[in-house]
Amino acid sequence: MNAIALSRLSGPARLALGLMLAACLAPCQAADDSGSGAATGLPPGTLAVVNGVPIAQAQLDDALRVARQPDTPQMRQFFTQELIVREVLRQSAEKDGYDRRPEVLQAANTAKASAEAELYLRDNLRLDPITDAQVKARYDEVVSMMGREEYKVRIISVADDRTARTVLEKLRAGVSFDELVRMYSVASSKESGGEMPWITFRVPVVEGKSQGVPVAVAEAVSHLEVGAVTQEPVVVDNLRVIVRLDAKRATQVPAFDEVKDDIRRQLHIVALNKARADVVGNLMQAATIRQ
Known about the structure:
Layout: H1 3-7, H2 11-23, E1 46-50, E2 53-56, H3 57-67, H4 73-95, H5 102-124, H6 132-144, E3 149-158, H7 161-172, H8 177-184, E4 199-200, H9 215-222, E5 234-236, E6 239-250, H10 256-286
Antiparallel strand pairs: 1-2, 3-4, 3-6, 5-6
Helix pairs in contact: 2-4, 3-4, 6-10
């Protein structure tokens, strides 16, 4: 497995690999694609047998699917080893009574309830396929809302007016924007120095057509010169946002073919969430709930 593939693995997968190396386990032969087990003498559909306990080939297929890894012989061998390590650990844990511990029983109940709910939703959601016409219409809609210019901004989001005033005073006193982001910002962009993706919108700003940018922020940005900071905090819901405009350029409109797959995925997610909300809403209305 190369370094790039390893870096994409989840934490548990990397831990399993470490356990395998530390224990000097001999590599096991990856199952063939047919899952027949004929090459190793295993029963059909069996990946491996650990102390008499079979591991189903389907578990390997599920592991690859959940991890979103390419289906290659190397990946199959790696995840085969991971499943064997997990089964060895599980057997040892159960031998010592870990399967009867309260936190394990609670985790099992939680996992069961989650699996039941997700399977129920999967079987009861009704989704129409996303058509090419819908994708093109969404593309045209987004392009129509783009302005002539796009902006690169940094923000500091704080929870109250007092903190916002403190940040602005420190900015005027010469404290760097980046330092104040680290000290005060409560936004997720704090980890990237307050930097936001390029944004664009038509000016004057119209509610509902600001490309997801809060209208107050869009209006503030549209009046800033490059390098300038808002003199007053911008109120967005319960937050106070201080904005700096780092750069401005002519809007770069992507070609339809470059973004159509992304748009299709976005439309699918929207449709999925709506269908899910409809199912849950109907069930909630029919349920008797006391709180």
